[in-house]
Amino acid sequence: MVVYVLHLLYFMSMYRIQLLLFLFLSSSSLKSQTWQEYSDSIYKIMQSGDWKDAYNIIDETDELLDVQDFVIDTTYADYLYRKGVLLNSIEKNDSASFENILNAEKIWKKSKIKNNRKLMFIYYWLANTQFYLKQYN
Fold first, then answer.
1. Distance (Å, whole) CA 60 – CA 5
2. Which of these, 34, 109, 102, 37, lies nearest to 74 by C-alpha position?
3. Is residue 77 within 8 Å of 52, Cβ to Cβ?
4. How many alpha carbons lie under 13 Å from residue 86 in its C-beta half-sphere?
5. pLDDT string in tens for the chain (137-residue length)
6. Which of 77, 83, 95 is nearest to 46 (CA)?
7. pTM exceeding 0.90
8. Residue 122: exposure state from Cβ atoms within 10 A (0-12, 13-18, ≥19)
9. How far apart are CA 21 and CA 106, in angstroms?
């Protein structure tokens, strides 16, 4: 009988541990975001006109890119474009802006899906950045 009670207590404690572990892991995964969601947030905030808030999310997105697996695709190109535009507009970091936008262009040019509207925006910012660099350097 004592052995039966000990087994029962053991299984109940294991069940509780598993339940707590499950609850902890599920709650933490609900709060975490992917870098794509941060990139989409940057876009939405930029659309609302608050570019400084969008700029503040860049570091968090870059940190997620360091730890999450990602594919170099058009979604990543869109993030690079947004990051480049913000670096140019807020930080006035023209060389980093130019590099990000140029990388976005390369990805879009290699893509099977052609989006001329995106390329038009990319070319605008590349020209704008190059004009600024030649004018002030």
1. 51
2. 109
3. no
4. 23
5. 656 655 555 655 655 555 444 444 444 443 457 888 989 999 999 999 888 888 889 988 999 999 988 889 999 999 999 999 898 888 877 788 889 999 999 999 999 988 899 899 999 988 877 777 777 65
6. 83
7. no
8. buried
9. 44
